[in-house]
Each structure stands twice: as structure tokens, then as C-alpha cells.
Specification:
11% of the residues lie in helices and 51% in strands. The chain is mainly beta and 140 residues long. An eight-stranded antiparallel β-barrel has the order 1-2-3-4-5-6-7-8.
Length: 140
């Protein structure tokens, strides 16, 4: 006679939930043009293709507390303008979107709104961290 031990009903931990968003995040101050400076990731594609990555510019616009991110990048010799709309979560500084069943979460972990921004992105439980700078920082 076997008895089954029951496991407590545990919530599956989402890695991005451990990252704290910028205190008192202000979406209006965050809008503008940002330039990608550095990327760190466990994403298989980035691990294999990071030597091919080129300059990326993002333009963030406020959409009534949600954000639109226009990513301008060169890929295969062509310029691409990729528009993505992210909905603000309950916590300011956290945004998400779903595209073709794949959820992307973004956390603006730290920014001074004028010089730098550290963003964490998660897709399929894999986290990527990105460092962005404003034009004046990148130009020097």
C-alpha cells in the first residue's frame, strides 16, 4: 500500500520577478532616444551571433503609461525599424508584451534618465541585460 506524498502547491519562480525596478520610475522622463552600449545574455542566438551585432538605437515614447519602443538596427545590410508596444505592469518600471504566444518582460532596473539605463529582458525564462546610453554619452 503506497502513500503519495503531496507537495505543497508552489508558484513557479519567474527569474525576471527577482529583479527590482527603478524606484519611483517615471515613464515620461525615460522617453527619448537611447543607444545600445552593451549586452549580456544566456540567449543561444546572442551567444552564437554576438560578433555580428551592430549599433542599435531605440526610441521610447510614452503611450499613456505604456511604452512604444522603436528599434532601429541594421540586419543583413538593410535598416529595420521594429515597433513594439509594451503594457505597464502593476509596478512602474515593469512592462510586458505578447507576440505570437511569446511573452517578453522588460524591467528598467536603473536609470538616471539622462546618461544611462540598465534594462533586463526576459523571453522563455532566459534573461538578457542591456546597457543603454543617451546621445551625449555615446558621442564622447
Amino acid at each position: 500500500r503506497g502513500t503519495r506524498s503531496q507537495r505543497p502547491n508552489r508558484r513557479i519562480d519567474n527569474p525576471i520577478d527577482r529583479i527590482q525596478a527603478q524606484n519611483n520610475f517615471n515613464v515620461q522622463q525615460f522617453t527619448g532616444v537611447w543607444y545600445l552600449i552593451s549586452v549580456g545574455s544566456m540567449c543561444g542566438y546572442l551567444k552564437l551571433n554576438n560578433h555580428r551585432l551592430e549599433a542599435v538605437t531605440v526610441k521610447v515614447t510614452n503611450q499613456d503609461q505604456d511604452i512604444r519602443i522603436n528599434t532601429l538596427r541594421k540586419l543583413d545590410g538593410l535598416c529595420w525599424d521594429i515597433k513594439q508596444d509594451y503594457k505597464m505592469d502593476a509596478t512602474p518600471g515593469r512592462f510586458s508584451r505578447k507576440n505570437r504566444g511569446v511573452k517578453t518582460d522588460i524591467v528598467i532596473a536603473e536609470t538616471d534618465y539622462t546618461n544611462y539605463a540598465i534594462l533586463f529582458l526576459q523571453q522563455r525564462r532566459k534573461i538578457t541585460v542591456k546597457l543603454y546610453g543617451e546621445y551625449s554619452v555615446v558621442q564622447t
